[in-house]
Amino acid sequence: MTSIAELNERSREVLRLIVDAYVQTGEPVGSRTLSRLMNDSVSPATVRNVMADLEDLGLLYSPHTSAGRLPTEQGLRLFVSGLLEVGRLSDDERIEVETKCRSAGRSVEQVLGEASLMLSGLSHGAGLVLAPKSESALRHIEFVSLGPGRALVVMVSADGVVENRLIEVPHGVPPSALNQASNYLSAHLNGRTLDETRVTVLADLDSKKAQLDELTSRVVQAGLATWSETGSDAALIVRGQSNLLNDVHAVGDLERIRTLFDALETREHMLRLLDLVQGADGVQIYIGSENQLFSAAGCSLIVAPYQNSREQIVGAIGVIGPTRINYARIIPLVDYTAKVIGRMIG
């Protein structure tokens, strides 16, 4: 692959101008336009020769005969890696990020959902957040009967967040069994997280140390099974997918975006997204086919990990957009938001 050091100053300037125009309009740029942008210091004929050389290197391509040039994915990568001047967030943008990420009175998932929506609005792409699995300690658990065979499990975390789960319980379970299950689990919380409580309780049940009758034991296990499936897994929050349709001009483009939407719904892709940022230092940029997750859609992904107070990577936050996304603006936006989210997670 061509390195930026292999290009002379004029070639770099032509590539930069073509990418800048591509980000702004998505349209190819011709030699005469480039010559004017260079203050006519270089003739259109000379610019055409430079463009031809860049095309031979795989950095530009012509979408139509005798048309101007557009950057290839390789050209975009070279620009982002070696020529991009990353901008700075304005004070207003920093304030907006911090305001949207305030956690007072809201659950972590609500805050992350708001952050994803904010990223979508500021980037005009799709904002995504991979939320961490819940590690908050639990303060209270209670089973409430909803009629034959059904019960509601109410969980209250140490930070005041209330979550409800519907579970199936054996028919004929008396209210006393639900009360006993509630008391038993609450007694085992003692500031433990959901995962820690599950491990302790299951070991207790397996060793027959728990003084529970058969029905109550089954209620407890039903509750634990439900939380295991839905309560502690990481979640992928995506907002603003419709923004990705703005650049669609053909049926084939629409089909690729639909493929992307399907990918965002699968757990496999969610886990692979976290793999992208594990061990990463700061913002990662994946352009088109470089990103196996969404390469079929021809999109770019700008993503950064965020850490908890123990400097462990617990999630990711980013933006998906067309390959002509405004990299200079979105990179610092994602980077700053990841840092704010990390402070909020604690």
Q: Output the helix-strand order.
A: HHHEEHHHEEEEHHHEHHEEEH
**Assembly state (oligomeric):** single chain
Low-confidence stretches: none
Determine the fraction of residues in helical runs and give it as a percent range.
40-55%
Mean pLDDT across the residues is: 81
Secondary-structure-based class equals alpha+beta
The Rg value, from CA coordinates, equals 27 Å
Give the total of beta strands. 10
Give an overview in words.
The chain has helices at 9-25, 31-37, 44-56, 73-82, 91-100, 108-123, 175-189, 194-206, 214-230, 251-264, 267-277, 327-345, and strands at residues 60-61, 70-71, 126-131, 138-145, 150-157, 162-168, 235-239, 284-287, 299-307, 313-322. It has 346 residues and is an alpha+beta fold. The strands form 3 sheets. Strands 7-3-10-9-8 form a 5-stranded antiparallel sheet, with helices on both faces. Helix 2 (31-37) packs across helix 3 (44-56) and helix 5 (91-100) crosses helix 12 (327-345). The radius of gyration is 27 Å and the shape is elongated. The chain starts with 8 loop residues before the first helix and ends with a helix.
